[in-house]
Amino acid sequence: MLSTLRACALRRVSYRPANLHKQYTYIPALIPPQARTYTTKMQTYHAVSTYRAWRYSLPPTSTVGVVPTMGALHAGHISLARAAASENTHVVVTIFLNPAQFSPTEDLASYPKTLETDLKKLEELNASLPDDVPGRISAVFVPTVAEMYPAGIPLVRDQQVGTFVEVIPLSAKLEGGTRPHFFRGVATVCTKLFNITSPNRVYFGQKDVQQTVIIRRLLLDLQFDIELRVIPTEREQDGLAMSSRNVYLKGRRREVAITIYRALKAVEEMYQNGENRASVLLEKAREVVSSAGSEVKLDYVSLNEPQLLEEVETVEKGRGIILSAAMWVLPREEGEGTVRLIDNLILS
Ligand SMILES: Nc1ncnc2c1ncn2[C@@H]1O[C@H](COP(=O)(O)OP(=O)(O)OP(=O)(O)O)[C@@H](O)[C@H]1O
Ligand SMILES: CC(C)(CO)[C@@H](O)C(=O)[O-]
Ligand code: BAL
């Protein structure tokens, strides 16, 4: 097996589990020492042309793992970058607050922007990675809106011109019910980012589970030669999924935010105790959220299979059924906005 892997690495052929009928495991020694980049300084690129000049200068033995983000980095993003460093010679983090995935009534204007701290966190990660980790963050791609959308990008869909990517009907389900514009914006920007950054692998978080299902489909349908990695959700001590938007939650609102995770865990426990009817399981989640009072409101809770996101009536073992929910934390004081949280667990 080792020689097969080494041959794959040297020919820059993807090492796919399907080839080996085995679960993927990373073996650091397979990355040739000459392709390692410990001493490379992390560079920030704002233009597609300068990024590409760097990307095309890499030796063919290099592998590039890309972590797309909207910035305001937290431990969840860092775990994606760490995973990318563990199996690529170069990690590229993209930071782009993508207007196309926001509706005119959403929080594009107030979304946290912390570029300086973000870059510092990535430098710190680089410094903390042990020697046997083959990759480092070599590049941070921080494009301007004009660079990504040369024709401009008004938030009103009817006013948008240019090329857009839609993954149907997946994009209309779950999150798409409340955010119909959302996945068109995500699929479009990810297609652009993949074309620009030329990754071998891309890293997405389980927290945005529908996004991972859509990206998997997009990679397949548009024939991208890119492997998708889905990284487990990083959580706060009480279980709240880390999210850039958590900075909006202070005091009492932070306390009640945990309700979404409690609801999912209550369903998981019920399932583990033998209940597998979706209607009963989902009712349990609704009960947990409604008993938390009027400060939170459930948007949806759903049980879906992981390929087409079809709703299921019973949770069958071994299918990786997705239990997902979205919940609003309502304003308490003048000037506060509603905060929408999402979370999910896989019932396996
Ligand atoms: N808690 C987390 N654990 C693991 N990955 C995460 C976590 N939160 C976000 N990610 C992943 O990081 C990537 C970039 O996400 P993004 O920049 O939108 O951050 P976010 O915290 O999800 O922000 P938002 O508050 O807007 O939802 C996505 O693939 C996302 O799934
Ligand atoms: C994938 C992404 C960076 C596209 O803007 C965004 O949807 C996110 O951060 O999850
Ligand atoms: N990670 C999700 C990005 C968004 O809500 O726009």
Automatic annotation (TrEMBL):
Root EC class: ligase
Gene3D superfamilies hit by this protein: HUPs, Pantoate-beta-alanine ligase, C-terminal domain
Gene Ontology molecular functions: ATP binding; pantoate-beta-alanine ligase activity
Domain of life: Eukaryota
Key words, A-Z: ATP-binding, Ligase, Nucleotide-binding, Pantothenate biosynthesis
Nucleotide-binding recorded as keyword: yes
Gene Ontology terms describing biological process: pantothenate biosynthetic process
Reaction catalyzed: (R)-pantoate + beta-alanine + ATP = (R)-pantothenate + AMP + diphosphate + H(+)
EC number per UniProt: 6.3.2.1
InterPro entries named in the record: Pantoate_ligase, Pantoate_ligase_C, Rossmann-like_a/b/a_fold
SUPFAM superfamilies noted in UniProt: Nucleotidylyl transferase
Pathway(s) where this gene product acts: Cofactor biosynthesis; (R)-pantothenate biosynthesis; (R)-pantothenate from (R)-pantoate and beta-alanine: step 1/1
Similarity section: Belongs to the pantothenate synthetase family.
HAMAP family on file: PanC
Annotated protein name in UniProt: Pantoate--beta-alanine ligase
